[in-house]
Amino acid sequence: MVLKEFKNLTVTGEPAACTKFVTQVSDQLTEGWRRAKELEERISGNGNLACFACDVAPDRPAASLWMASSTDGALYVSNVVPVGQHQLQYDEYNAVLDDFANRFAQTAADQLGLKLVVTDGVLRIEDKLSETAFKALRRFSSSANRSTGSSHPMDAERWFEFIALVHKESSPLSPDDLGRWLRNEGWDDDQAFRLIVEYEQFCSLLRFYDSSR
Fold first, then answer.
1. Dihedral angle at the C-alpha atoms of 156, 158, 161, 162, nearest 10 degrees?
2. How far apart are CA 44 and CA 204, in angstroms?
3. At what angle do helices 131-143 and 153-169 cross, to 10 degrees?
4. Per the domain annotation, does 4 fall within a domain?
5. Does 101 share its domain with 147?
6. Residue that is last in its domain, among 118, 136, 165
7. Are 133 and 99 members of one domain?
8. Could you tell me the pLDDT band of residue 73, with boundaries at 50, 70 and 90?
9. Are 61 and 82 a contacting pair, CB within 8 Å?
10. What residues are paired with 69 via a beta bridge?
């Protein structure tokens, strides 16, 4: 089973060209897309965010796509917010981002000599961990009693080894991604939830310990 995730879009290159990117895209918008400056003024106020809104279409929901700039001047999609519904599923979010990229963003990037990258929307937990940490997680998941989680001393030792490696290596694995991986590996919802709560708490404790030394 393929685990999906929300796609990322980034634009990098010369700072001056990155500055022109939003205007270049805005001048090309068609097919139900528009620059939502009224939302920008209401939400950001300081011009640090650009908002592009789209109407509903057969291949996408209505939404507003937000772009922000990083400290080095690069641009990225910070969020895609639904209009008229509570939240977007992975496929819906990615459909809006892909439509924006394919219709406008890639063309603008090419015109300005910028590099545009869109991730593939597939969650590979091994990409968020070192090989050693991923093997430790595999050992715990394959050996642990699925009805007791990390309660047994031997299971707890394997679990703590994994968490210690994540902390030591500053791995960018979120509790949500860990929970999705555990469920995909056959853990039931209750035990997966308990483990991700432990994961978040222990990682926070280790960070606090380091900062207080």
1. -100
2. 30
3. 160
4. no
5. no
6. 118
7. no
8. confident
9. yes
10. 75
- At 78, give phi and psi (nearest 5°): -90, -25
Tell me the per-residue pLDDT of 53-71, one tens digit each, with 9 for 90 and over.
Answer: 999 999 999 999 999 999 8
Domain count, the chain: 2
197 and 129 in a single domain? The answer is yes
- The tokens describing 114, both together, are 């910028």
Asked if the structure places residue 3 within a domain, the reply is no
Contact residues for 93 (Cβ-Cβ < 8 A; gap 6+): 6, 7, 63, 80
Contact 152, 144 (CB under 8 A): yes
Phi, psi angle pair for 123, to nearest 5°: -80, 115
Residues in the chain, how many?
213
Strands (E), 83-177: 115-118
- 113 and 134 share one domain: no
The residue segments making up the domain with residue 24 are 9-118
**Domain check: are 142 and 69 in the same one?**
no
- Which letter does DSSP use for residue 104 in this model? I
pLDDT score, position 185: 94
Q: What is the CA radius of gyration of the chain?
A: 21
Neighbours of 25 (CB within 10 A): 25
